[in-house]
Amino acid sequence: MTKEREYLQTSNNNLTKERDQLQTSYNTMTKERDQLQTSYNTMTKERDQLQTERDFLNWRLTNLSWQKFESSWYFLSTETKTWKESREDCLERGADLVIINSDKEQVRERERERERERERERERERERERER
Q1: Reported pTM
Q2: CA nearest neighbour of 44 among 34, 54, 33, 36
Q3: At 96, is the pLDDT very low, low, confident or very high (cuts 50, 70, 90)?
Q4: Helices (H), the chain
Q5: What phi and psi, each to the nearest 5 degrees, are found at residue 74?
Q6: Which residues have C-beta within 8 Å of that of residue 18, sequence separation ≥ 6?
Q7: Cα separations (Å) of 110 from 100, 114, 117?
Q8: How far apart are the C-alpha atoms of 29 and 51, rounded to whole Å?
């Protein structure tokens, strides 16, 4: 009976030790999970703030005569200036004159210029109508 009792006591001790280790492991994992959740929440909030800021800046640029084409932004001036004046204006805006690098971009610029010319023509027509 004593041997059996010792065996049961040893088994009980081992099981208790294993249970304690499992509890410690569980507590550690719970703490890590909570830290990961906090990190996730913080990063999600930061991502949302950055997206909001990006959207606002895109909106602001668009309303200031800037237009996005693929991954570049272009300022579309309505003023007629010399090349030098245009370049100085661009540099003051932290930009430079456009260098067209692709046929697609060239076509888009031509379409834009045609649209600006049509708009100028409509404006001249409105002026003539007002003068009558």
Answers
A1: 0.47
A2: 36
A3: confident
A4: 2-63, 83-92, 103-131
A5: -125, 135
A6: none
A7: 11, 6, 10
A8: 32
